[in-house]
Amino acid sequence: MLRTITREGKMEAEKVYDVGIVGLGYVGLTLATVLADTGNSVIGIEKRADVVDLTNRGVPHFSEVGLSDALNRVTVSGRLVAAQQFDRNAVCRTYIITVGTPLSSDGKVRLDMIEAATRQVAENMPDGALVILRSTVQVETTRKIVSPILAATGKRFDIAMCPERTLEGRALQELRELPQIIGAEDAAGSDRAAAVFQRLTSSIVKVSSPEAAEIVKLIDNTFRDVQFAFANEVARLCDAFGVNAHEVISSGKLGYPRTNVALPGLVGGPCLEKDPHILLQSARTRGLSLEITAAGRLVNERQPSETVDFISQEIARRQLSTPLRVRVIGMAFKGVPATDDMRGSMSIKVVDALKKAHPDAEIGLFDPVIAPEVLADTFPDETIFSRFGEAVSGASVVIIANNHPALGAISPRTMSEFIAPRGFVFDYWNHFSHLPTSELGDSYFAVGHTESAA
């Protein structure tokens, strides 16, 4: 056991943790829990006092399948503790940086939190520590930002980039199943980082450098973003010709292995809304312009305003009476797997576009996972509903904004019995495309299906 000398000259035992994780957001808390559950002693550092308190009580601060039981188990056992900062008498063998990298108002990725977290690690780490960057970052951040801050301490260290790639709603499962990407500056760092993640999974993929690992994460999400953008392009085309995009896409890939077009819908979330921008920013540092990446983001980012334009035209065509009662159902950025995460949610962009187009409308919100009090805190000017039926009743327009299965449980024809006369449903996720036209009625529209059913 290491020992330190206090200001009074007394010897104190120094606590050594297997892993220290800086940042207990979605990425950090799920990783900390699974690492602790596999037998590691883990300390999680988080500046938000409320998150530290909840974590130490074994209570997650977000919804994630299986996390509540697992977190309670590792905190009760003492294998995971949380604090707002490293204690001077506690060091770690391995440090993992998992803080967020949001975009600034000018669209560039912020690295101030990465820099601050690295300084925390640099101050605390003992000689010979392993430092792993897991946050999504601009290419060369590991080598040009994190490593120099650590090196300035004069201590020896190994460093690796091991990007997070889990899917919200399946994080605990995927941390134990997905291949872990390891990109280090040398073989020693690569081997040490691989040993950390081999406690979770036997599937380790070593790449040649931190930059290769950084790019892996960025292209993973950018590829998906471009795929979805093409699906939304198909929807625009089908709308122009009065054809059902869901039918076109689904029929075209039946038994045809060379085409697997995604279905259209809102594209956002904490990764897809920003990672393509980080990739674009990285490319610009080398004088490159990534046209397909930029076009994909353009298509997906303008979808809320385009679809609200259609909704407004339909409101006018139907001469709906005022005050308009517009309901947006599904505020989390996705519904499958279910989550309560609203970071980067395009549902919020839809609400913003609706408020600009119809400033006098009463806008009501409901989500099957997000607690009503959380919605009320986030949207203090809107009406919040705790039940789907209450939200739909008397509505002029019902907008289904994510793909949670519960939002497809009541057919449009049934909904039409509860909404206002001449009211209608706009569905971003084609929940009901499998139904016959008799169940769709004449007041149902979807992305890529803006011709009402007869």
Automatic annotation (TrEMBL):
<keyword id="KW-0520">NAD</keyword>
<protein>
    <submittedName>
        <fullName>Nucleotide sugar dehydrogenase</fullName>
    </submittedName>
</protein>
<dbReference type="InterPro" id="IPR017476">
    <property type="entry name" value="UDP-Glc/GDP-Man"/>
</dbReference>
<dbReference type="InterPro" id="IPR014027">
    <property type="entry name" value="UDP-Glc/GDP-Man_DH_C"/>
</dbReference>
<keyword id="KW-0560">Oxidoreductase</keyword>
<dbReference type="InterPro" id="IPR028359">
    <property type="entry name" value="UDP_ManNAc/GlcNAc_DH"/>
</dbReference>
<dbReference type="Pfam" id="PF03721">
    <property type="entry name" value="UDPG_MGDP_dh_N"/>
</dbReference>
<dbReference type="InterPro" id="IPR036220">
    <property type="entry name" value="UDP-Glc/GDP-Man_DH_C_sf"/>
</dbReference>
<dbReference type="InterPro" id="IPR008927">
    <property type="entry name" value="6-PGluconate_DH-like_C_sf"/>
</dbReference>
<dbReference type="InterPro" id="IPR014026">
    <property type="entry name" value="UDP-Glc/GDP-Man_DH_dimer"/>
</dbReference>
<dbReference type="Pfam" id="PF00984">
    <property type="entry name" value="UDPG_MGDP_dh"/>
</dbReference>
<feature type="domain" description="UDP-glucose/GDP-mannose dehydrogenase C-terminal">
    <location>
        <begin position="327"/>
        <end position="434"/>
    </location>
</feature>
<dbReference type="InterPro" id="IPR036291">
    <property type="entry name" value="NAD(P)-bd_dom_sf"/>
</dbReference>
<comment type="similarity">
    <text>Belongs to the UDP-glucose/GDP-mannose dehydrogenase family.</text>
</comment>
<dbReference type="Pfam" id="PF03720">
    <property type="entry name" value="UDPG_MGDP_dh_C"/>
</dbReference>
<dbReference type="InterPro" id="IPR001732">
    <property type="entry name" value="UDP-Glc/GDP-Man_DH_N"/>
</dbReference>
